[in-house]
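Question (not urgent): is this output format expected?
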Amino acid sequence: MDLKLEVVVLPVSDVDKAKEFYLGTLGFRADADFPIEDGYRIVQATPPGSAASVIFGEGLTSAPAGSAQGLHLIVTDIEKAIGELTARGIDVDGPFHDATGAFHHADGTHRVPGLAPGRPSYGTFASFADPDGNEWLLQEVTARAPGR
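Got this back:
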């Protein structure tokens, strides 16, 4: 059985502000904007090169705006990605790696500034937030793990 992640719902406080950030600033593809009725609106956007999308809007989730954490965008060159996001006016923290050499800690502890030593695939990160504080991480992947 194939199970494919298709959509992640993002809790936002202002749909139009989120739409401008994701489509205008980040350059996500606009897939849909359905204002169904007062208090119910669906906006779907897809990151360039991704098979999965994000949906945000009104009446879609009871999660507080800005509460999504640890969303990952995979890049092949983290320094280039940081440069492009910074040029778009996004405040990016990084690059960094975890002192354990594994996946980053959620609370930022063990975070070491700079590229992971030897720059292994999956080892280097950067982070930024949308206008509501939903947290995104960039993760550099240059060689996929087997089966990926």
